[in-house]
Amino acid sequence: MKIYAYGIRDDEKPSLKEWETAHPEVEVAFTQELLTPETAKNAAGADGVVVYQQLPYTRETLQALADQGIHQMSLRNVGIDNIDLKAAKELGFKISNVAAYSPNAIAEHAAIQLARILRRSKELDAKVAKRDLRWAPTIGREVRMQTVGVVGTGRIGRVLIQILQGFGAKIVAYDIFKNPDIDKQGLYVDSLDELYAKSDVISLHVPSVKENIHMINKDSIAKMKDGVVLVNVARGDLVDTDAVVAALDSGKVSGMVMDVYENEIGIFNEDWEGKKFPDARLDDLIDRPNVLVTPHTAFYTTKAVLEMVHQSFDAAVAIANGQETRNLVKF
Ligand code: COI
């Protein structure tokens, strides 16, 4: 059996080596290049491909794989929102993802950045770098004094709740699917509007499905407390960025954590130093003292990368062998 992997980064190679050593029966070939209609040809002869989400996987890309006789794709990440699922279905693709490589990686990042916003770390760091070592006016707020609204109580939302409860924060949660543990604790509110009205901080942990696109917009922001802090480590298109920029300008939103951005494809995971930055709105957000931008790195830990590599290759082999895999995506 042969598996061909796209977009393999140096930091993934040790985990890949480990997996290969444990699976001598599988021939592994890989490239640094991302999967595109052109590079799909290089997978000829493979039983399956392993990829991660950095580009849209269009009908053209899927067709190019199908032309090589490849009808399976194993993602090393969780999100499937970049895949033309209609085309995948029509072309008879089986797709797997890594549903739980490390919920803690993402939840921890959200919690850390949220605490940094409340303690005004970016402003303090900038002052210290200039050797301005005065306290005032950079006074912070404590996590335990906040009501945090967690939207989405899947794996990541639940770990975030645990972490924030450790800090002593009051939690309110919303999800259309109630989790029994969260329900038992009495954390659910009945509607998003109620969550918006009660929360000092709102953290998003829902997928980018059409009902959720731009759920944070002018109208929903109007329902929030003055000075609310927003945290988005989920998907960029959950947030109408223009609406948030206006709310940051007016002070309605007092801070924003963004690990994802609406137009991040082609911008994040690239080095723009010394080059013309392609997005003026993002440029401005990065410069703001009360906005913490990270380039979709919430997931990026050694544990997560190891799981992403091992679980995606396991799934690719299982699909190629016609076996069950818990990571098969239903679409
Ligand atoms: C995901 O797993 O879906 C992520 O957002 C991480 C990234 C590698 C795309």
TrEMBL record:
Signal peptide: none annotated. Keywords: NAD, Oxidoreductase. Residues 8-330 form the D-isomer specific 2-hydroxyacid dehydrogenase catalytic domain. InterPro entries: D-isomer_2_OHA_DH_cat_dom (IPR006139), D-isomer_DH_CS (IPR029753), D-isomer_DH_CS1 (IPR029752), D-isomer_DH_NAD-bd (IPR006140), D-LDH-like (IPR058205), NAD(P)-bd_dom_sf (IPR036291). Coiled coil: none annotated. Residues 115-298 form the D-isomer specific 2-hydroxyacid dehydrogenase NAD-binding domain. GO terms for molecular function: D-lactate dehydrogenase (NAD+) activity; NAD binding. The keyword Cytoplasm does not apply. Its EC number is 1.1.1.28. Belongs to the D-isomer specific 2-hydroxyacid dehydrogenase family. This is Lactate dehydrogenase. It comes from Oenococcus oeni. The gene is ldhD.
